[in-house]
């Protein structure tokens, strides 16, 4: 088979999974009983409450992105570039809020602080702790790419304080911009925390308002500003896309020696970890308060957890396979329009899950596609469409690092494209595929909004179960369920970490 | 690698081939899962019919089962919808998503809670009560207390844009007419009434003594009494010439094109039975049975001892959509 | 016989090669000598079929292999092998697997493959290295594995891109003689790129100098 034929098929499949349902819904919003009309779009200009919530969302996303990025860069440098004690352990701890369903954190914090936590600053605080790890990780990633000679040259003339400011920070400027934009998009589309803490943001309002009228045409129209914001952000991101990733081995990296600051900064990071991570988690443990509630939760969680794990594993497998295939297409620029693939994948990631969920219902809920809609396959399609961007981008970072010569050498040995793919690229990407799998697993596992819309009756997942229990359920039971959920999420992460450490020790 | 792919394929096929031979019924539920799930489990046990349930909550308004029912109109998956109030049922009826079914167990339920053409039937209800703080002298006995000088800056009400509070106000509109309700709402505001985010929050405020009273759902009120908070319950507007308490029943209905109509009827019959009403009365939600003579806890009054507000829920549903813009602007003033 | 005819190549509007004419006879040892950026590596990639000319033609044994904007003959049909400057050994395969890769693709049975790998390893003096991982090898050993991997397919033409530049001078000199010996034994055409004049003189039967993308003889 020709390379382009196979990958054309992959793109066609992804088109049906992600883009087609959305296009159909967009198309539907423009027609009323077969006649073209823009009436559904009138709401965008006439509804003041909607516009107000748009302003709220903007302000929220801006505040969260600014806070997470500025704090995240500082922590990223401390954790990734200094001789801080337990830096790896701290990094792992700080990632926890990102990987567990965010409404669990909202639940826990609201419980601690009570009524005044509800509203703008409560949402900002929770989302800040949730997205902080993104800024930290992106900073650490870019720090690994600084050519140590650049800093060494500067260090001969000045102290670290100035070198950081004048050399290092400017060199990781793309990381700063990238982290800011990513957090902005995610905070803009985030739904569950604002909903729980009752702050009217655009993604809740556009749907809450219209769910009173149950008008999908208007709901689609109302989502348009989100698409516009996302598109704008991507346009800016294009300037960064060209940055090549070049990793410097950790051993060669110039590390900052903290000297007399080592203890105070250690205590500072410890405090942050205690505050942002340990506090909400211990709140849950405290709430659970008895072994009985834990056992009761365990019994109730058993079925939903089993389904959650199964769906997440299948989702993760699909995500890492298709993430690899689409990264391959984008990296090799197999088609002239590869940017469209890239852009659509990212757009789906940034789009509110509720919108994509409804698009999937409208598209797949037909008698002859019941084998998809009425089974968990619909969830897998949802996870694949929503999170493909994550695994694609993760795989891409590896693909750009495989020297072209390795592929050329294989071609000269007589290898066709699929030999090269199978024997050279795939084995070299083994680790990144594993990382993609774990990331896909965690995100499929924590997904709530779309799952709630799509799960076949009788097969709810654990996050959905917890969410529905939150209405009048016993607080001790909910807390115990949250703890089970967190454990299930963190286990594969811990596994990956141990695997990595073991492998490093081997090498 | 090949083995991994094979394993995944097998898993995927197993996951998706969950076709059951057994008789089953699919129900979408808006009543809190905590209260509804035990009832559905009992139904499963007693009839052997497998229940596939899909729950949502008030928290998930935007992604809830209502959107799903409407989106699935052309290819329904659900047989039965268990709504936690009749307005949603009305919306569905107007969208042509329901078919009528009159259960034999509807006998004995007051007519006001049964849709005229039998599209939905009400059962176990919440009522809208005043929760009053223990220390309050001169306990209010009408919702008009919200506009009384005696309670200036001392009362709280949940945000009227959401939940049962919206329905309640829409009901008042159908009963009193636009002018009277708007005057009432303006006066309520002038009187310094606080707006909380939910009925639950209102109840907590009263329990903590921050406000003298609040209009809340019976389940919120009863749970605070159970928690031994210093509060008491007042059934408002019971005197002659007063409108009575507003009742928000659960409502059950059958979906047009339901895949399992026989099992659907059995489930509806089950939900409308006196036994189910009794269970829901003794659950934490303390819902009031609509059949007379059903055993119930002593904290709440039986329906035939309460003066009930006489409204047409169809009109209420229509009014509810109509007054949204007004309520928004009223709130933002 | 390889013929490059009026070749222009540019990347991102930067001219890399300008009007290059070159004839390479069978079994000669041609060295392209030039400083970095003179375009000598691009000539190799042009012959291998990794770079498309903007203008001009490439003939291999009388067949048109590349022309303006097109590669007509894909790399693996050109009977050409290449030792890259960074050697491009596949890090996830051991020495034997690196060398056997091309034979495996051709579908050669395992037994035969193992024998051939063994023979070629002893030819470059690495009989016992077959099971070793790439990162366990020294610079000179890696160099010889890369050479073995290229030679195992018995190519008509071997392209070498500064293969010895990263080695210490003594080793460099030793390997030069080995390469010449191998070429004489096996009789392939050698196109060798370097910036080292001594190296060029020792290896070449003909030296062609390059400067700023042009041939200056």
Description:
The complex is a heterotrimer of chains A (507), B (333) and C (217). Chain A is an all-alpha fold. Chain A contains 25 helices and two strands. Chain B has two domains: 24-125 and 248-300, D-Maltodextrin-Binding Protein, domain 2 (3-Layer(aba) Sandwich); 126-246 and 320-332, Periplasmic binding protein-like II (D-Maltodextrin-Binding Protein, domain 2), CATH 3.40.190. In chain B, strand 1 (24-29), helix 2 and strand 2 (50-55) form a beta-alpha-beta unit. The longest helix of chain B has 20 residues, at 313-332. By secondary structure, chain C is α/β, with parallel strands linked by helices. Chain C has two domains: 2-79 and 155-215, Rossmann fold, CATH 3.40.50; 89-147, no CATH class. In chain C, the strands form two sheets. In chain C, strands 7-8-9-3-10-11 form a six-stranded mixed β-sheet, with helices on both faces. Chain C has a five-stranded antiparallel β-sheet with strand order 2-1-4-5-6, with helices on one face. Chain A binds chain C through residues 403, 405-406, 408-416, 419, 423-424, 427-428, 430, and chain C through 48, 50, 74-76, 80-82, 84, 86, 88, 90-92, 101-102, 105-106, 149-150, 153.
Helix share bin of chain C = 25-40%
* Average predicted local confidence, pLDDT of chain B: 88
| Estimated share of beta-strand residues of chain B | 15-25%
**Architecture (CATH level 2) name of the largest domain in chain B:** 3-Layer(aba) Sandwich
Brief characterization of the structure:
The complex is a heterotrimer of chains A (507), B (333) and C (217). Chain B is of the alpha/beta class and 333 residues long.
Key features?
heterotrimer; A: 507 residues; mainly alpha; MetI-like fold; 2 domains; two-stranded antiparallel sheet; 25 helices; 1% strand; B: 333 residues; alpha/beta; D-Maltodextrin-Binding Protein, domain 2; 10-stranded mixed sheet; globular
């Amino acid at each position: 088979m020709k390379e382009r034929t196979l990958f054309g098929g992959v793109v066609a499949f992804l088109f049906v999974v992600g883009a087609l349902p959305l296009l159909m819904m967009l198309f539907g919003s423009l027609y009323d009983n077969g006649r073209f009309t823009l009436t559904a779009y009138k709401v965008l200009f006439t509804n003041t409450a909607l516009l107000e919530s748009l302003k709220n969302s903007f302000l929220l996303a801006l505040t969260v992105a600014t806070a997470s990025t500025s704090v995240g860069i500082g922590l990223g440098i401390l954790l990734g570039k200094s001789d801080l004690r337990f830096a790896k352990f701290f990094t792992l701890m700080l990632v926890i809020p990102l990987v567990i369903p965010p409404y669990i954190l909202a639940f826990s914090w609201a419980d601690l602080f009570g009524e005044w936590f509800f509203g703008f600053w409560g949402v900002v605080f929770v989302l800040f702790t949730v997205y902080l790890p993104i800024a930290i990780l992106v900073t650490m990633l870019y720090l690994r790419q600084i050519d140590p000679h650049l800093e060494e040259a500067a260090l001969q003339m000045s102290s670290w304080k100035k070198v950081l400011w004048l050399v290092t920070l400017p060199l990781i400027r793309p990381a700063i911009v990238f982290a800011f934009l990513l957090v902005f998009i995610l905070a803009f589309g985030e739904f569950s925390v604002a909903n729980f803490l009752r702050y009217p943001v655009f993604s809740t309002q556009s749907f809450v308002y219209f769910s009173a009228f149950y008008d999908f045409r208007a709901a689609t129209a109302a989502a348009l500003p989100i698409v516009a914001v996302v598109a704008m952000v991507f346009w800016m991101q294009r300037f960064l896309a060209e940055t090549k990733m070049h990793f410097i081995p950790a051993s060669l990296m110039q590390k900052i020696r903290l000297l007399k600051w080592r203890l105070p900064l250690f205590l500072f990071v410890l405090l942050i970890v205690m505050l942002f991570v340990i506090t909400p988690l211990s709140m849950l443990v405290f709430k659970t308060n008895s072994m009985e509630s834990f056992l009761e939760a365990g019994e109730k969680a058993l079925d939903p957890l089993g389904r959650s794990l199964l769906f997440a594993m299948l989702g993760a497998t699909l995500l890492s396979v298709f993430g690899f295939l689409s990264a391959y297409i984008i990296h090799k620029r197999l088609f002239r329009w590869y940017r469209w693939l890239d852009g659509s994948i990212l757009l789906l990631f940034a789009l509110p899950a509720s919108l994509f969920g409804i698009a999937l219902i409208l598209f797949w809920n037909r008698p002859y596609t019941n084998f998809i809609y009425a089974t968990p396959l619909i969830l897998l399609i949802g996870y694949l469409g929503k999170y493909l961007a994550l695994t694609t981008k993760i795989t891409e970072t590896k693909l750009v690092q495989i020297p072209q010569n390795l592929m050329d050498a294989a071609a000269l040995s007589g290898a066709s494209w699929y030999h090269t793919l199978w024997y050279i690229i795939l084995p070299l990407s083994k680790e990144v595929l594993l990382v993609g799998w774990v990331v896909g697993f965690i995100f499929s596992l924590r997904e709530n909004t779309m799952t709630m819309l799509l799960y076949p009756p009788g097969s709810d997942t654990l996050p959905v179960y917890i969410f529905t229990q939150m209405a009048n359920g016993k607080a001790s039971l909910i807390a115990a369920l949250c703890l089970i959920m967190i454990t299930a999420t963190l286990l594969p992460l811990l596994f990956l970490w141990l695997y990595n450490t073991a492998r490093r020790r081997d090498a | 690698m090949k083995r991994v792919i094979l394993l995944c394929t097998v898993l995927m096929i197993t996951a998706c081939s969950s076709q059951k031979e057994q008789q089953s019924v699919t129900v979408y539920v808006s009543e809190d899962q905590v209260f509804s799930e035990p009832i559905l489990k009992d139904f499963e046990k007693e009839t052997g019919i497998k229940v596939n349930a899909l729950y949502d909550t008030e928290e998930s308004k935007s992604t809830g089962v209502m959107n799903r029912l409407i989106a699935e109109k052309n290819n329904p998956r659900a047989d039965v919808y268990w709504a936690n109030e009749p307005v949603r049922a009305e919306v569905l009826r107007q969208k042509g998503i329901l078919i009528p079914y009159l259960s034999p167990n509807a006998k004995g339920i007051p007519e006001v809670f049964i849709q005229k053409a039998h599209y939905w039937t009400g059962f176990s209800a919440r009522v809208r009560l005043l929760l009053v703080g223990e220390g309050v002298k001169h306990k209010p006995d009408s919702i008009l207390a919200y506009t009384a000088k005696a309670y200036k800056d001392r009362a709280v009400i949940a945000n009227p844009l959401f939940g049962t509070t919206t329905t309640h106000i829409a009901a008042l509109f159908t009963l009193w007419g636009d002018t009277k309700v708007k005057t009432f709402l303006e006066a309520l505001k002038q009187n310094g009434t606080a707006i909380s985010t939910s009925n639950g929050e209102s109840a907590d405020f009263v329990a903590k003594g921050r406000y003298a009273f609040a209009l809340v759902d019976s389940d919120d009120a009863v749970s605070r009494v159970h928690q031994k908070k210093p509060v008491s319950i007042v059934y408002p507007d019971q005197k002659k010439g007063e409108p009575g308490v507003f009742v928000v029943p659960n409502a059950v209905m059958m979906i047009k094109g339901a895949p399992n109509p026989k099992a659907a009827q059995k489930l509806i019959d089950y939900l409308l039975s006196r036994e189910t009403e009794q269970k829901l009365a003794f659950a934490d939600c303390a819902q009031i049975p609509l059949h007379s003579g059903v055993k119930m806890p002593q904290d709440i009054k039986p329906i035939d001892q309460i003066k009930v507000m006489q409204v047409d829920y169809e009109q209420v549903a229509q009014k509810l959509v109509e007054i949204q813009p007004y309520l928004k602007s009223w709130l933002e003033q | 016989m390889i013929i490059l005819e009026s070749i222009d190549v540019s990347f991102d509007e930067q001219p890399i090669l300008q009007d290059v004419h070159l004839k390479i006879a069978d079994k000669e040892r041609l060295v392209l000598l030039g400083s970095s950026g003179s375009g000598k590596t691009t000539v190799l990639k042009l012959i291998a079929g990794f770079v498309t000319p903007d203008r001009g033609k490439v003939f291999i044994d009388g067949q048109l292999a590349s022309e303006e904007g097109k590669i007509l003959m894909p790399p693996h049909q050109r009977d050409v092998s290449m030792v890259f400057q960074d050697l491009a050994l596949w890090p996830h395969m051991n020495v034997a697997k690196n060398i056997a890769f091309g034979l495996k693709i051709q579908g050669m049975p395992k037994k035969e493959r193992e024998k051939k790998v063994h023979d070629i390893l002893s030819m470059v003096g690495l009989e016992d290295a077959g099971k070793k991982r790439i990162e366990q090898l020294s610079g000179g050993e890696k160099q010889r594995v890369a050479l073995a991997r290229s030679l195992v397919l018995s190519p008509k033409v071997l392209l070498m891109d500064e293969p010895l530049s990263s080695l210490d001078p003594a080793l460099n000199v030793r390997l030069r003689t080995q390469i010449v010996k191998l070429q004489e034994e096996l009789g392939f055409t050698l196109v060798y790129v370097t910036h080292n004049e001594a190296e060029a003189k020792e290896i070449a039967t003909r030296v062609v100098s390059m400067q700023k993308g042009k041939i200056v003889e």
